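quick one before i forget lol
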Amino acid sequence: MCSLLGASAWTSEPINRRNAFSKAIAVPVAAAGSLVIAGSPVEAAESGLALAQFQDPKTGIKVKVPSDWIASVQQLPDRRTVNLWMDPKDPKSLVFIAFTPIRDDFTSLGSFGSVDQVAVQTILPKGQLAGVDVDAKMLSAVSAKQSYLFDYLQTVPNVQPTTHFRTIFTLQQGATGGAGSVLVTVTAQTPEERYSTELEGAFNQIIDSFAKA
């Protein structure tokens, strides 16, 4: 059984410049399968959270992830692959990496628009998500590391308390083994109360550790 944040997560319509990002930020909060981080040294973040380096063999991206959280991997019907790390003591705190195959006419992140355009059109809209009201606030949107980096809050009244998200969008060309590219999304999320008191330092390290091949 899998619960999703995002109404379009299980659809299979052709991916266009807007719903590619919308699909990428839809989050499976439970997944089947196991994920092994082999030979990765473990280090403690400032919060005390143990981190280990993960490297995807297909895209070559590297990022540190919580080594003591439950790891899983899932193949979705729309060809996305999602690697997930969830805090066993707090399922609202998780890190996930989504790999979304896209058409070869997406030649750069600029194909989706500027970092500010993506923030406004995809992450920030107030309205409804899966039939419930959603309110989002962007704290930071920057272009760095050949990627778009977002820091934002999201609240779903009476459903989800204010949650803090740190997200990286990047494009890896030729990572499908053919002419197409892969939109890679790295997201760390936790309730805002826990972010401000415990996990901010660890999330900073996760985002700072991200590197492309």
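fyi The two ends are 34 Å apart (CA to CA).
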